[in-house]
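Sharing a chain and its predicted structure for anyone who wants a worked example. Both blocks are below, sequence first, tokens second.
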Amino acid sequence: MAGPVAIIIGTLIAFINGFVVARLSKRVTEAGGYYKYATKYLGGKSTGFFIGWNYLFYAILYGAAT
């Protein structure tokens, strides 16, 4: 019973994340995605590195869970 609910919640979270990425891509037109945004606006290269790897792990885990 909890499996389908978890998939629905995960899908909604992924949709919201996709919406945010679409908005960010309009603001940051350079290649690099989350890494470039975090580097430019959130505190430098170490923050960008951390955010970039966090996103990679999130994407892999979400894909594996689905």
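Comments welcome. The two ends are 15 Å apart (CA to CA).
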